[in-house]
Amino acid sequence: MKQLNRTQNEQNLVHSAITQIRKQYQNEQTEEVPKEIMENKYFTEYEQLNELELLTNKHIKYCTKKLLNIGYSIFYLDVGQPWCIYWPLNALSILQDDVSKYENQIIQYLEKCKIGGFTGGPNQFEHLAPTYSSLLSLFILSTPAALGLIDRQALEKFFWSVQDPTEKGSYLMHVNGEADIRAVYIVVIMVVILKLDPKLLDGCAEYIASCQTYEGGIGGVRYSEAHGGYTFCGYAALVCMKKADYIDQEKLMNWLVNRQMENEGGFNGRTNKVVDACYSFWQGAIFKLLIQSGYVDEQLMNVFELKNYIHMCQNASGGIFDKPSKSPDAYHTCYGLSGYSLADSNFQNPIYNIPNKCIEFVQNFFQ
Ligand SMILES: [Zn+2]
């Protein structure tokens, strides 16, 4: 008998659990659940929902609790505390909750993380990842006070300090840190929207293009495996610079359409990997970007199936998880809802992953 490797085994378990869950939703399954399914961890820990719909109010409650608990984040995400603001804040704004009531608290907190770029928490070093999540949080608030916290000159200085000394167009996540496509993406999109020195963009498109793999997706660095998160970062940066044609978009599209899993409806991040709700955004947004770049003129993903997968990844009391059997968290709630929103509406901006109305406000604010 053919021995299955861990990934294939896992994939089969996820497939059969989700198929069973869907049957129950659609009331196709009236008989007893088969024994092997009852022993399947992805099924057994699944909390059943009444129907397949978005639990908006439950998610608002869940995210509000997360957002107001900034101090607690230090226990589990010490070097990424601004993320603990951005994830629930972005989710709340997608759910059309009024986020203005959190403005003062968020500004006060992020002020403690500001140098020129932002740090992962008070008294830490500047780092591109918390700089990204801090800036996006301030953009979402979209008020003069929030945007007034941004020191464009100091930010520009920080960006120059993280240029990769060994590779033109590449950036380091922090001074002396690792280089990868995330860093290029963050610098590019912030330079464009904040109207910083365009020389910071020199060589970026060429560098990103050199990271496209034989499969068509983009790797974190050159010669590495195509991955949903890095592909999003690379392609979003190219679309932002209006240089989408620097990569082979036909190949990108072929890789991308094969990431939506037939049984689950959600996306995986890499070839032969298991489906995960956060790729609803990382992969899902690329479909939208292919339209924005003008390469295709229609949505190529199965929106209905994706939404159903996200429905199945909802915790009955709020929050979204990676896949049945996992616990909900702010990260998967943010990216599950972002993918959900992007799939069939124009509310979110696919490059920045914040509402389009906020992008407009920021663009007008910084002249
Ligand atoms: Zn995930």
UniProtKB/TrEMBL annotation:
Keyword Transferase in record: yes
Name of this protein: Prenyltransferase alpha-alpha toroid domain-containing protein
PANTHER family in UniProt: GERANYLGERANYL TRANSFERASE TYPE BETA SUBUNIT, PROTEIN FARNESYLTRANSFERASE SUBUNIT BETA
Superkingdom of source: Eukaryota
Cofactors named for this entry: Zn(2+)
TM regions (residue ranges): none
Family of the protein in this entry: Belongs to the protein prenyltransferase subunit beta family.
